[in-house]
Amino acid sequence: MATKHVDADKVEAYTRALMEAARAEGRANADLVQWQHARKFSPEVLETLAAMQREDDLDLVEQVAKHYKELLDAQDVTVSVTVTTAVPMDDDLRAKVRTKAQKDLGLPVYLVERVDPSIIGGIMLEVRGKRYDASVRAQLANIRKTLSASFIGGEEK
Description:
Elements: H1 2-24, H2 28-38, H3 43-54, H4 61-75, E1 79-85, H5 91-105, E2 109-115, E3 122-127, E4 130-135, H6 136-150, E5 151-152, E6 155-156
Parallel strand pairs: 1-2
Antiparallel strand pairs: 1-3, 3-4, 5-6
Helix pairs in contact: 1-2
């Protein structure tokens, strides 16, 4: 029971410190959004960010990310595939997408999953700078384009 009390005290202290610092910088809501994503960070990412913070090098984050991607692309055969769906993928769909992408590319695949309700349904894939859009939003846009090309002012051409 003592551990739960200590944990609650730590949570309170961390929360108040973060909130006070965020409010002082006018970023309380933005910091909350970032904090909610922080649990996804690996220990090595957190350690590198902490080292960069200590050295006052956080302005290099974008350059490090770019260089990291360049090195990874040059040294690793795994292909990053960004998958966007309207709702989170379940394990079955995730496995099917990975299997299909690996078969088509002939290489191991790392899935980056994104959820975007505005696509309504279907799926979008981004691989090596190319986008494959099989979303409901794209299909509706194609239907709209076809119909507007066929009709002018409500009359057939």
